[in-house]
Amino acid sequence: MAIIPESEWRVQPWKNGGGITREILRWPDNDDYDVRVSLADVTKNGPFSQFPGYKRFLVWIGPNPIDLILGRAIHSLTTPNATMEINGMPDLRGVLPAGPTRLLNLFVKDGAYDYGHNVPVKPVRFAFVSSRLEANVFDPPERITDRCLWIA
């Protein structure tokens, strides 16, 4: 197992220029990636970037709640590890009722990998344990028992 230390996370602007994210992992490491994991600082209300051809999995890290607005639906992330899964193209907006927050983002190219959130039921290649802000890469895949965001 290799832990990806926070000092190696790549700080970069959001695709739409509306904020900053820390890219934790990209497989393969090029613009046509299959998987990308990042930790986004959400500091103001506004639109989220679109990622056509990808599934997007959002995990609330905190400290403040966020309301994610998709059409007329409002999905509030207010508790540790609260999640939302969407395709990469919707017109998603974030509203911060109590101030800045952080979201863990997982982008998976349609059909490229299995992924999920909770205790994985099969061996995994990557796991992010949000309670410790710890990113782990496993080679070969391993079984883990922590509640996490995972890629298999």
Walk me through the structure:
It is a single chain. The chain is mainly β and 152 residues long. The chain has a single domain (2-111), classed as Jelly Rolls (Sandwich), CATH 2.60.120.10. Helices cover 0% and strands 57% of the residues. It contains no helices and 15 strands. It has strands at 2-4, 10-13, 20-27, 35-42, 46-47, 54-63, 66-70, 73-77, 83-87, 92-95, 101-109, 115-118, 124-129, 134-142, 148-151. It has a six-stranded antiparallel β-sheet with strand order 2-3-4-11-6-9, with no helix packed on it. It has a five-stranded antiparallel β-sheet with strand order 1-14-13-15-12, with no helix packed on it. A four-stranded antiparallel β-sheet has the order 5-10-7-8, with no helix packed on it. The protein starts with a strand and ends with a strand. 29% of the residues are buried.
